[in-house]
Specification:
By secondary structure, the chain is α/β, with parallel strands linked by helices. It has 6 helices and 6 strands.
Length: 320
């Protein structure tokens, strides 16, 4: 059984750890609130970009845009949905967004698991990873990743999203990659730390650019002139829209990471409280046992002294 000193030292250690987990919880909460506020401030701009893209893709001049999926010559039809025939040797790019560190529950593992499930199905791919945790994971397994793509997951900014977009768009325009998939965690108001999302970023699907009746009616009444032409304007807007999507994914992932870390730290705090309760009970039990033992030893010593004194007095009486 542990001594009272050992239990007191362990209680102190648990309390010190609890201070750290409390601090991490508060820091994650502050970071998440700030990131959500910055995303909300930029969202109206990208909503307007999407509305303008919707207007332009309805024009005949944009029918041949390389940023939209080819809808002819389908390989199969599934419930009315066209499936584009893919070449076995085409190269696709995966943009995987993870965290820079752990202590966030299953946040990183869920993203990596989803990424590995899709990457194994592709014979030719390029892997771009945001976050040190994901880079270390893929490197440890000998998977080829872009070493120059060293972006952190902390403090996502629109400027960083634009830099990432420029890399991807350049490769897409040079036809070094035919498709771009992004794997990230959608925050969804923080429910269970968010859901892992796997979606095709490029080329676009025209069905994704559909507005409701009110927005569509508003666009029809607007008279827009595009200079020098519609296709040029569209090609200039697409990178900005992709940057907005990536920025949103970075912020969603960052908020999901902080939410998962808050949940993990909250669970750690609860476990620490239970452990402290158990240790305090154990400490009181050991302390009471020690006190009882001391009382027993004192009582035994007192009885021994009384017996010794009685025997001494009896010997003295016998001598007299």
């Amino acid at each position: 059984m542990a001594t009272t000193k050992e239990i007191k030292n362990r209680i102190k250690s648990v309390k010190d750890t609890q201070k750290i987990t409390n601090a991490m919880y508060l820091i994650s909460s502050t970071k998440m609130t700030k990131a959500k506020r910055e995303l909300d401030n930029t969202r109206p701009y990208f909503d307007m970009l999407k509305r303008q893209i919707v207007t332009m893709i309805q024009m005949k001049e944009t029918a041949g845009s390389e940023y939209f999926r080819v809808e002819n010559e389908p390989e199969a039809s599934l419930e009315g949905e066209l499936v584009r025939k893919e070449s076995d040797n085409e190269t696709v790019a995966y943009l995987v967004i993870t965290a820079d560190k752990g202590l966030a529950g299953a946040y990183n593992q869920n993203v990596i698991k989803e990424a590995m499930r899709h990457i194994k199905e592709r014979p030719s791919y390029k892997l771009y990873v945001v976050g040190e945790y994901g880079r270390r994971y893929f490197e440890a397994r000998g998977m080829s990743i872009d070493q120059s793509f060293l972006y952190t997951a902390q403090n996502p900014t629109l400027e960083r999203a634009r830099e990432i977009t420029q890399v991807i768009i350049d490769l897409y325009n040079k036809r070094e990659i035919s498709k771009v998939f992004i794997i990230y965690t959608d925050f969804r108001n923080g429910l269970m730390g968010g859901d892992v999302v796997y979606t095709e970023l490029l080329p676009f699907d025209r069905n994704d650019f559909i507005l409701d009746k009110e927005e569509a009616a508003e666009l029809k009444t607007s008279n827009m002139e595009y200079m020098p032409n519609v296709m040029t304007v569209l090609n200039n807007l697409v990178p900005s829209y992709v940057a907005g999507y990536i920025y949103s994914a970075l912020v969603d992932s960052f908020c999901s990471e902080q939410s998962a870390r808050m949940s993990a730290m909250d669970a750690a705090n609860n476990n620490a409280e239970e452990l402290l309760t158990s240790l305090n009970l154990e400490y009181n039990h050991v302390r009471q046992s020690a006190i009882t033992q001391e009382i027993t030893e004192v009582s035994a010593g007192s009885r021994g002294q009384k017996k010794s004194k009685k025997k001494r007095e009896e010997r003295e009486e016998g001598l007299n």
